[in-house]
Here is the input.
Amino acid sequence: MKKRKYTLEEIRQKQDVLQAELKQSEVRLTEGINVLRQPQEKPVGFVAGVLAKAQQMSFAIDGALLGYKVYRALRKPKKLSRRR
Here is the structure.
């Protein structure tokens, strides 16, 4: 099987295409980060406020449980052999 030899012009064209794709990816990523950084809308009304607080509490509880599970997994002593 013979390897194909690339010309310098083909390599430069491919490099330009990859640079353009990288730039587009960077723009999409920047737009996504900007959307995530926007402040959340304030809930309007009593029910919306209660639901927002409940959601915040659920996130905090979920984070605490995950942290506890990680702590328990890292705290276990490592067994070097399988002696019985």
